[in-house]
């Protein structure tokens, strides 16, 4: 795994010191070596974490006549086949890396055809010395990040925003319009980031920059197309595709391990891969506990498991560092265990496999219509879904206004339009609650509805409601939260995290499986669980999803954490954004057990920590070294 930085700026005479400073800011992404390219107004830098062809894979890598060069962050899993094809067409390779197929493939086929042929996770930048054109692409799902800043004659791009802080013509400004949506979604949910004029290259898009003009083009999107598959056929295809994907994702010239929780997704990957090393994490509390189940599974599979224990003190100490590595405020509590888990794994391996993406592709979330624990209610919901849309929607409107009763929410969400109730997995504050807390200057932003409708408008309205919800989560929650924290927390510890579920061939399988095989009265993610059961003990294939549970409530109830939170909530800069009396009362009541607003308190806390790191302390890396404590 690696890190990329670059800029086009005619106002800087000596580009090398600027480029080196930008590269140093993301050294954690590639501690093994560095490379640069400079030509006229263009400067591109690269930090390398060596994975494939460790000794000879320095970047940039050039084509035969050195008219084009590539820098690359990621892995191309079908590079061997692509190399054979390109060599048959006369291309001469100078390394054994997967990187080199990109520059030759670009030269042979152009960007559109190249992107149709490659299979992997990636961000790459290709520079044409003859035309001065810069072409960059981000992978299909957004596994690898890429940001840009195009303002006042300066064009910047990088794997992480923090690199921009080291460019003299980057103007660091807080984006006021980002805060209100964040309080609802828990992550940076809009197209523009928390830094004004800084944007992401969207997942499944490439860009071309030439003569001061930026063009962004979509090359891939998830397209659902149900086929009349039997459950047995669906399960066969899932299991076959998973074995193929895990095999490709495990190719490496350095040690590879696997993250292991108590859930089916990482367990399925691990059971197929059977690595020497597996890793799990727990906190020093009895409230949540996953590590013992993961250790038990590893034992059943005959694998080694290293289990880490994180103390409350170490977890809280890590928050400023975690927010620094995230670049933007991130209130998903699972950042904390993931940071320590990848730190634990980095002691033995450089590459780790994980289970992200399974819930979005195979309908694993409870709020896709699996709220009720009653089999009768779930069965009724399944039958109601078979009604004509007009009748279902009218029924939903009636259910919405009825007094609450057991199963009402499940039945409502089984019959309503997705657009009427579903905004994705994370919903912390309602918009009304966010407005009540925020000062007036932070009220002007896109509404939650405007944000999610950008995705809903792209998915066919002929799709069923579950498919619409999956599509939204793929482009919002997964791309902007789940995959971002996976990249950032692993890269913070100089490890490469690979996600076998997020493979285009896996996506093609998922797209054609009927919803009835994915979500039904028996379970969520049903067909995937049946496929996993071929490789796992039944009790693991059927396990309920926990995610990475974090004992926030326990922490806030302790005096030391509460006082630290209260000190932050009482600062002058907190008063700049929030009605200070309201947020302090929310915290006080949570500490005293008068409310259960731990997620709301945590969301405010993480934002204030992030703001302190980047705007009060100037974006310097916090000088802390949190340690994971291994269980004896």
From TrEMBL:
Annotated Glutamine amidotransferase type-2 domain residues: 2-212
Segments traversing the membrane: none
Reactions accelerated catalytically: L-aspartate + L-glutamine + ATP + H2O = L-asparagine + L-glutamate + AMP + diphosphate + H(+)
Organism field: Companilactobacillus kimchii
Assigned keywords, A-Z: Amino-acid biosynthesis, Asparagine biosynthesis, ATP-binding, Glutamine amidotransferase, Ligase, Nucleotide-binding
GO cellular component, one term: cytosol
Gene giving rise to this polypeptide: asnB
EC annotation from Swiss-Prot or TrEMBL: 6.3.5.4
Residues that hold L-glutamine according to the record: 98
Site label Important for beta-aspartyl-AMP intermediate formation, positions: 356
Protein's recorded name: asparagine synthase (glutamine-hydrolyzing)
GO terms under biological process: asparagine biosynthetic process
Family label: Belongs to the asparagine synthetase family.
GO molecular function: asparagine synthase (glutamine-hydrolyzing) activity; ATP binding
Binding locations of ATP: 259, 281, 354-355
InterPro entries linked: Asn_synth_AEB, Asn_synthase, ASN_synthetase/amidase, AsnB_N, GATase_2_dom, Ntn_hydrolases_N, Rossmann-like_a/b/a_fold
